Structures are given as structure tokens and as C-alpha cells.
## 1
Amino acid sequence: MTKNILSSLPAWRQLADHAKTLALPENHLKFLLKESGRLKKFSKKGAGLWLDFSRQRLDDKALHLLLELAEDRNIMGRFEQMMGGDHVNVTEDRAALHTACRSFSNKPVLNDGKDVMPEIRRIRNDIKSFSDDLIAGKITGPSGMPFRDVVVIGIGGSYLGAEFATTALQHQADKGIRMHFLSNVDIDNFGAIASKIVPETTLWIVISKTYTTAETTANTLQAVKYITSHGLDPKNHMVTVTSKGSPGDDPSNPVLKTFHMFDYIGGRYSVTSAVGGVPLSLYLGYDRFEAFLKGAEEMDIHAATTPAQENLPLLAALISVWNINFLEYPAQGLIPYSSPLSKLAAHVQQLSMESNGKSVTLDGEPVRVSCGSIIFGEPGTNAQHSFFQLAHQGRPFPIDFIGVLNPCYDQYNGLSQGVTNHQELWANLMAQAQALAVGKEEDPSPAKRFSGNRPSSTLVMDDLSPKNIGRLLAFYEARTVFEAFIWGINPFDQYGVELGKVMAGDIRKTMAEKNKNPDYRFDNRDEIQKFYLEMLFG
Ligand code: F6P
């Protein structure tokens, strides 16, 4: 599969040489941007999104070589294999079939020879009837009052994507449900939620593929204690989303309803499964969840079938590889000029860093090139007032700007300095992309000079409809796996999170041992300090 070493491929070597040419002063972005027809060449539309990558430090030759690399690595072929159920997750010997979750086609999708679609459709129907009934007040707790608060317990891939989508779609949350996320084992996360909810009208959704994650287990126990301490029964107030046969799918421990998730869908790719489906359908209504799925499906089809030179997530992946491996940027900023997209960076951070933060190839050999990128971000313009000083004059990093043409709350249209807030937002997005690219070198004071030549792309969407949020989600999923297919790594396992978990287990055991002594207290500075020294310095 990856026997031919990536860095010795002709396209890779030529890219490395060409990067030196592009580093010459005459190829500064301020000059590249003067080329006529550049925007037309370096921007593409597809699946409802528009990607402008004219402010990347690219020229025709670089793009041509990157496309040649994509061809050499057969990344579209690998994408097709992934969607077709091949065991692309080689270390766990599994398929990666998140795309099947949003397929509305009649075609079967085979996993080990068995069509997964009937099961996926059944779960979608279950989600629909459960959410319809709960919203209609047909499913209630014993009080008979409709559920008003939903607390989602889960962490990592069993949390971040659902939080991103609910935050992005909050403007359509008209079902009278308040959504809370209990991810951190920090008791302050629990306490803050407990202080806001009414026990009789609260539904708890425990989301965990394994149902053994320490944080989720601890938070579930807190929830059970909270429910019972209010004279209620967890079986009337809890729903689980988990793998078949996990401890959360145990008939001796009944809950209101269990929805299954499957080993062929990884946590960070699971937003379009029941993981996102149950909370989103309760929050927005099932129809909007289905529109979200259809947006994701449209992007999957675009990624799978559009020629490489017109394929948005594939081009974005090639740009990542160019920036990481040839221009040697270690990080990437994700800056949506849209407050409801405030959780996008956190979701893509996990999606990308847990998928591609790898050091061995599919054959278990060292990758020998840098993989993955440090992803971070905040909405603009807030980001401008926090870390953009470094973006402009400190260590450079490429940025994805995301612009939304129509805001959700267009009715508030007062003017400040002659423009609406939405216009002000767009003025800033455009100005930042341009300032980073062209800079300003002529100022008597060195502290006021801007070197420019700082790359960015701008991704534009019409509005924050469920369909567009689905498209955006699937765009970043496809970009992530295309990057991995170039590097020849497995974007579907996450062994890197294990060592710390094991070590925490050892420390936990020592703590539990000490807790057996009724006089032992952990909650004071001296004891914590002593314990810290004992554990970490022997
Ligand atoms: O620690 C990482 C991780 O394993 C993620 O990959 C996963 O999404 C998360 O923990 C939660 O796992 P689970 O769904 O099994 O609780």
C-alpha cells in the first residue's frame, strides 16, 4: 500500500524544490495576488460551499504537482474504498463507514458482506419516533410534565461534534428543550448544570461507544445519584447511545431507550450517527436532523465523485499537505466569522488531531514526514482581539476563514459608522485575509511593519441552515481523511490517547486505596502536593 516511500516520489521531491522557489521574495503573496485571473483559477464551488484559496502561497506548478501527488497516492480511490466498506482502519481491522450514516441512496453498503443500511435506517426511524413523541409530550417522566432539559453525558467524539452542531443550529431550536453538555469529569461541570435543571423534567443522554470511558462513567454515576436523590428512577430519565452489548446496553440496568452505534463508525466521525442524531433531533426536531444528514451526504458525494481539481475537500487537503510538509507551518487557525460556529474549531481540532497526529504508516513504518497540524481557533472578530497579533507579526500560520452570507438574525439591522453589524463582520474578514497576505513593509517604525505573505483560504456558505452545517461537517471530515491518505497513515485509530489513560488508572488505584481510610482528606494543598510528589517523583 505505502511501500513506495512518500518523500521519494517524484511529485514530492519536485514539490520540495518548488517550495524553495516560492520562498523567494519575488513570490511573496502580494505579487502572486496581482496575477490576473488568479481568483478564478484558485477558487472552486461545490456542494453548496465556495472555497477561495487564492491567498495560499501556491502557483500553477505547485497545484499541478499536488494534484499529481493525489493521483500517485490514489486518494480518491482510497475514499471510494472507505465508502465501500473496505477495512481502511487497518490496525483495528475495521471499516470506516460514517458516510453510510447519511446515505439516503438505495444502494447497499457492505460491511464484511452484510448491508449496513437496513440497520442505519432502523435507527434513524427510532430516533424520529422517539424525538417526535418526546417533543409532543407523549414520552415524559412519571410527573407527566414534558422534558425541558436534556443533559448529554459524553466526551471526545461522543460530545464535540454534537456540541458543534447544536451550537451552530441553536437559532432553530424551537422545541422548548434546553441542551447541556456534561463532558468533563470536573465536578464543577456537573455542578453548573445541576444548578440550572429541574430533576423531574430532565432527560440524561449518556453517549459512549465503549461505555467504559472513565469520565463518562463518573458523570453517569453522578447523574444516577442526582436522579435517585430526588426520588426519581434513572430508568425513566436516562437514554443511552452506545455499542450493542456494552455495559450501557444491559437489560438488567433498564433505561428509557437505547440507541446503538457501531464499530465501523469512529467517535470523531460519529456526529451523523445516533451520537448526534438523538440530541439534535430532540433539540431541533427530526426533520432538521435529516436535512443536516442530507447536507453531509451531498458533500460526501462531491468528495467521492468530483474530479480532483474541482474537489473542495481534496483541494483543501492538498493545501494542508503543502503548508505542513513543504512550507513547514506547524499549526492552522480556523476562524469562522460567525458566532454560532464557535465550536467548530474544537470539533475539527479533535477530528484532525486525533485522526492525523500519527507517526507510523499503514505498514507500521515511520512516516518520515510531518503529519497533522495543531488546529485551534475562535470566531472572528473576537480572534482579532486575542491572538491575531501573533498571526500578523509573530510566527505565521495558515488560516481557514469561514464566512456566512446570511446571518440568522437579520432583523436586527441598526447601523454603526454607516454599516450593519453583518457588514462590519465581513469587512473584517476580508481585511484580515488581505492584510495577512500583502502586509505593509514601509513604515518608519520597525514595530509597525507587517511582513505579510501569510496564507489563508476563505470558505463561504450561504447561511447556517442544517443542510449547510452538514456540508461543513462533512467537508472537514473528508479533508481529514484525504490528508491521511496522502500521508499513508490510518486516520481511524487513536492509540495515542491510551498511555495517559493507563497511567491515570494506576494513580486512581492509589487514590482509591487511600480513600479506604475514613480520615483521609484529599482536599487540601499539603495533601495534594504530597500526593503529587509521591506519584510523579517517587
Ligand atoms: O480518548 C479518546 C476517545 O477514545 C475518543 O476517540 C472517543 O471519541 C472518546 O474517547 C470517547 O469514547 P467513548 O465514546 O467510548 O466514551
## 2
Amino acid sequence: MAQQVDAVEQPVLVVKSGGEAAFAEWQACFAVHSPGLTLRHWDDPELRLEAVTYAVLWDPTPGRLAQMPNLRLVFGSGAGVDNVVADPDYPRHIPLVRTSIPEATDRMGEYCCWAALSLLKDARRMAIAQGERRWDYFEPPFRACERTVGIMGLGNMGERSAIMLQGLGFPTIGWSRTRKAVPGVESHAGAAELDAFLARTDILICLLPATAETHNIIGAANLAKLPRGAGYIGAGRGMQQDLDAILAALDSGQLSGAVLDVFEPEPLPAEHPLWAHPKAIVTAHVASLPSRMERVAFIAATIAGFERGAPLPNLFDHARGY
Ligand code: NAP
Ligand code: GLV
């Protein structure tokens, strides 16, 4: 009994993110930002579930959180927490905070700028030619100011990406569930405005969360609504993309190129035709990965605020699904 009282009084944070190899780095980061906190690894055989007050998670073992009676607050170690709420026994009364922080949105903006410029300049064609030691002179037809970038999902990631893309000269428009007022970005809202948004989009970027509504949203029907020769950048979640439809659109010329960071399943199987496709760039879910120190600074400050009774940032909403 005395042991349990101690446990509740001394906050214990359990980590499952980055594997056991990353745990020492999490410890070093928390030692800087929250030295009073005791850290335990999710798979630590000595972990007493009743001692856990906080959790930082990616892909937790289903059912385990529900066995932590003193759990008070959960953090997804990324911005998307679909991997956390995939647990059918997720204890929904425990607030879940997404680590969608400025250091992550900057990185996503950088990825989208790199990917949009890669499509504009046909970087894939250049890389293939270089690999073959072949002098491949060609004239990319457009300037950035002539290609409208349409961003699906104008949340933390989408808004920052839109602003950074504008800095490169791309006109930017956005599509979200509710209307937005992002400077310089024309806002389209809801299912009724999706077709008009797609019709105006030369480079489509998907930065939506994984929800029932966004499943396979990048499929044949919506790809056909883009202007012929559009580009596609996928950095939301793999479940949003019908890869067969993307391949067909690349082969038919409906898409002129694609940059894909997310897949279902991950890793993309080695035999998948996208790996070698001459119009596709594949990256390994690396679009936005803030450092552990950056994430811990946010998590530690959020825990300190929570203990003072401050409102929580980036709260996951179970009803909306994101
Ligand atoms: P967020 O702030 O919650 O933004 C989500 C946006 O999507 C919001 O604008 C929301 O509309 C919109 N949305 C959601 N459902 C919609 C629907 N059915 N129709 C139209 N719009 C819809 O999330 P975030 O922090 O920007 O992160 C977005 C996603 O990016 C994450 O969930 C994750 O999947 C992905 N991500 C990927 C990486 C990577 O490395 N590849 C890194 C970080 C994040 P409202 O604004 O109207 O609510
Ligand atoms: C990465 O995919 C994240 O959700 O942060």
C-alpha cells in the first residue's frame, strides 16, 4: 500500500517511442527539461503499471494503457496520434496531446517546399539521368508562380507549409473541414467545396489526419478532378492514398509526378512498383521529425502547465477523430 502512495506522489512517465535504443536519449532530454520526473521504458520488466502518471507513445501495445489506473495525461510522440487511438481500449477519459509543435511544422514546411520544387524542376528525371551518367538537357515549363499548390488539411502542418510555399512564389489554396483565414491562402471548406479546390490545384499536398472520412481520399475519382499533369505530394498518412490509383494516374499522365512520404503498410514493400517508377520520389516517412530535445521541451512544459491547471494544447478530439 505504502508503495502505491509513493508512486502516485512521484510522477512516473513511461516512454514507448523510437525503440529501446532511443530511451537513453529521452532520459537525457527529460533530465534537462524536467529533472524531477522518473522515466521508465514501456517494456521495462520492473515497470509497475499503477505507478505510471504520464505516457509518451508511438504505436503502444493495445490494452496496456487501460491497465494504468493512475494515468493522467498521454502524449503522442508525433503530430498524428492515429497509432495511439488504434488501441480499442484507449482510456478516452485521459486527455491525449499531439506533439504538433512549431519545430515539426517548420520541418513539414521544408519538406513540402522541397517536394514542390522537386516536382516543378522534375528532380526525379534529373536523378535518373545522373545515375546513368547521361546529359539530359530539358526545359522545365513552369515557374513557381504559375503552379497553384492546393493543401488538403490547413491545420498546424498545412498552414505553416502554405506560408513557406508562398515564400517560394507558389500561389496557395487550402481545403479543410472548417473555413480558415490564413493570409494569402484561399480557403475551401467541406465536402461541397472539394471539387472546386481540386480543379484549381496544380500541385496537391495531402496533410490530413487519418480518419474514417479521409480513408482513400487520394483515389481515382479525386485524382481525375485535378488538372491534367498535376503533381501530388503525400505526407499525411498512407491510409489516405490508393496507390494503385496513383500509379495509374502517373502512367496515364493525369499526374506528372508524385512525392510520397507515407504508405500503408510501412515500410513500402521492396517489390512495390513505386520504388522504381520514373515519375515518383519515395521517402521513408521522414517529412517532419522534430528532435527528441524539441519534443521533450514541449512535453515537459505541457506537463508543468497541466499540473498548474493550465489548458492543454493540441488536444485530440475523439468525436472528430483528430
Ligand atoms: P491538425 O492541426 O489537426 O490539422 C488537420 C487539418 O485537417 C485541419 O485543417 C482539419 O480541418 C483538416 N481536416 C480533418 N478532417 C478533414 C476532413 N474530413 N475534410 C477536410 N479537412 C479535414 O493536424 P496537423 O498537426 O496539421 O497534422 C496533420 C497530419 O499530418 C497528422 O495527423 C499526420 O497524419 C500528418 N503528419 C505527417 C508527418 C510525416 O512525417 N509524414 C509528420 C507530422 C504529421 P479543420 O481545421 O477545419 O479542423
Ligand atoms: C509523423 O508522422 C507524425 O505524425 O508526427
